[in-house]
Amino acid sequence: MSATTAVDDLTTAPGGGGRLTWALADCWTMTRRELAHWARQPVAVVVGLAFPVMLLLMFTYLVGGGRGVAGDPTEFLVPGMLALTMAFGLESTMLAVTQDLDKGVIDRFRSLPMVPGAVLVGRSAADMLQSTAALAVMGGVGYAVGWRWHDGATAALGAVGLLLLLRFAMLWVGIHLAMVAGRPELVQAVQILVWPVGFLSNVFAAPASMPGWLGTVVEWNPMSATATAVRELFGNPGGATGSWAAEHAQLLAFLWPVAIIAVFFPLAVGKFARLSR
User: Fold this and answer.
1) Separation CA 48–CA 207 (nearest Å)
2) Are 72 and 153 in contact (CB under 8 A)?
3) Model pLDDT for residues 154-194, shown as the tens digit of each residue
4) Short-list 190, 165, 188, 155, CA closest to 176
5) Could you tell me which of 209, 112, 118, 225 has the C-alpha nearest to residue 166?
6) Which of 18, 112, 149, 246 could cross-link 240 (Cys pair, CB 3.0–4.6 Å)?
7) CA dist., res. 58 & res. 50, Å (int)
8) Cα–Cα distance between 236 and 45 in angstroms, integer?
9) Distance CA 168, CA 135 (A)
10) What DSSP state is assigned to residue 248?
């Protein structure tokens, strides 16, 4: 089964009746299944929300962020941490996918008269809801430590949209890597790959404060593009260097995630379609 065929399954219902209705019903059922796990595993949910908050407080009060930036370093740091939050926390999604694979749950779902793609849609929908909650928590904590946005509600909503777009892109990277890993014990090794991407960015320091070659690499990091773009939209200091990447951060913050989705969404869907064939 090709990736295109698997995507088409989202509009193909068992028995051929009410295709879109069946597809939406199956997707919602899978989403509710994922949300039900939150009630049974509240500690994992709380830890997932608390970890980025801990990082924010640590870099605000202990380590110090915003090096090389004129103005309030907190207003530089918080938008960067919001972008970082969208990349971290993928291990919970990856672990859920690998556990379902390891226990044969996905094989059982595939044997039922349901839309096959609903499993991935349910997983991604639940992750996006959790990511939205994480943004709300981080925004509240940021406000408490002195961060403010200055350019109105429309620009702020645009910033949130770019953050969730980055998360959606990273989500499909995580789903694909989880299916490649196949077993829960391999998730930790795979998720280590996220850390270099997160810290090799302008989340904590402006590229101008780095060696020239490193600053260039940092500026072209997809996470740096999103962090710079949301700083602009929030009206926060960005530590801009005048480079093309910095001047067109909002464009790159849209194009990078779209490119990532274009690569990893079909890879993930195709990998899922080939499972247990």
Assistant:
1) 29
2) no
3) 999 999 999 999 999 999 988 888 888 777 777 776 667 77
4) 190
5) 225
6) 246
7) 12
8) 30
9) 14
10) T
